[in-house]
Design a protein that fits this description.
Strand content: 15-25%
Oligomer: single chain
Largest sheet: 8 strands, antiparallel
Helix content: 25-40%
Number of strands: 18
Length: 377
């Protein structure tokens, strides 16, 4: 790529001023050595050598992206207004024509191999995103959709609301526009675990977003029902460079059947709270069924006991999701497993298969001890 002269605009200068302020912050625990360690609404960047940084800057019209290698001294000169031009490489963001369809569209909603679906038809796609929307009432969900032309859209779903971010398409990028009078926001971790703030003003009704996502999956654009603004969170800018081939290279081939994905586990019914009632035929020594919050607390205590004894390994998954799944197992089999080795061994196998638990080393006997110790607070 040939370098061109980049005239420093005011918003990039302001970005460099914030970078300098961060560099001058006291302390040695600064996060700099990543491609997107430093983020701004205008772009992102990071340190690539001891005294050299590389930044990506998105022009205000959304048509171009500049790649700008700069040394720390130049960053400070730009921030102070002493440097008004540098050399960089310009890339066009908006494609001049649509790519030819190739392969199947792709849906991804997590970091595991089975958190993805190679889409065969519209019905399968709608069932999948409806399942993710149902799960989002417990916690917000992020999904990524690639069309067969490698257009890409990111959706953040929270209950009946959904924010849409087009990160790659023939028309460039954009963000859905909802109720602009709302100034609140909510937090979510992206699929690499990085925190992201989602303004409620970006959210539109799920019914509209659902059909728009299906349209995007087929045609590479959201359709006329969604109003887009030509901006995008800096955290998502890099995603536009990742097509289906690159995404699958890091995670393995996506299942093409819903039953082979993680969605069936995600849709497991939440253990229902059973209200204990006195019945004339019930023995007096029968314990009242545990409430949902009691099951969750028991699950957390059990994890703590197993972890303390080095009998369990847990990945980076959400602990609430693990305890939710574990609570369902404890409700059905926890009491029986305390008295039956066979049940305890079966339960140990089931716990080891819970999503987010990397390995369980506990035998049936180990689990019985842990169940008894964690049963009461």
């Amino acid at each position: 790529m040939n370098e061109e002269l980049f005239l420093v605009p005011d918003d990039f200068r302001a970005f460099m001023q914030r970078v300098v302020a961060y560099l001058d912050t006291p302390g040695d625990e600064k996060f700099l050595d990543a491609e997107d360690a430093l983020q701004d609404t205008t772009g992102y960047g990071g340190r690539i050598e001891p005294d050299k940084f590389r930044f990506a800057y998105i022009t205000r019209d959304g048509l171009s992206k500049w790649e700008l290698p700069v040394r720390e001294a130049a960053i400070r000169d730009i921030a102070d207004g002493l440097l008004i031009e540098i050399m960089g490489v310009r890339f066009d963001i908006v494609r001049t024509k649509q790519r030819q369809p190739s392969g199947e569209p792709l849906l991804v909603w997590g970091e595991y191999v089975d958190d993805a679906l190679a889409i065969r038809d519209d019905e399968q796609f709608l069932v999948a995103i409806d399942g993710l929307q149902t799960a989002s009432f417990d916690a917000p969900r992020m999904l990524r959709v690639w069309s067969a032309m490698d257009d890409q859209c990111v959706a953040v779903i929270k209950g009946d609301a959904c924010a849409l971010y087009v990160v790659e398409s023939v028309d460039g990028y954009g963000t859905s526009t909802g109720d602009l009078s709302r100034n609140e926001s909510f937090e979510i971790a992206d699929q690499e675990g990085k925190p992201m703030t989602v303004p409620w003003a970006d959210c539109i009704p799920w019914g509209v977003a659902r059909l728009a996502l299906a349209h995007f999956m087929r045609h590479g654009e959201l359709g006329q029902s969604v109003l887009l603004e030509g901006r995008i969170p800096s955290l998502l800018l890099m995603m536009g460079d990742i097509d289906r081939k690159a995404a699958l290279a890091t995670r393995g081939e996506a299942p093409s059947e819903l039953k082979r994905t993680s969605l069936p586990r995600m849709s497991t019914p939440i253990p229902a709270e059973i209200i204990a009632t006195d019945e004339l035929t019930a023995p007096h020594d029968v314990e009242a069924p545990l409430k949902m919050e009691e099951l969750s607390a028991w699950a957390r205590r059990l994890i703590e006991v197993l972890y303390t004894r080095e009998l369990i390994e847990i990945g980076n998954s959400n602990l609430d999701e693990i305890t939710y799944q574990l609570g369902g197992l404890l409700q059905a089999h926890g009491t029986e497993a305390q008295d039956s080795v066979d049940t305890a061994e079966w339960l140990a196998n089931e716990i080891g298969a819970v999503r987010g638990i990397t390995r369980l080393f506990a035998t049936g006997g180990d689990l019985q001890i842990a169940l008894r110790r964690s049963r009461e607070a």
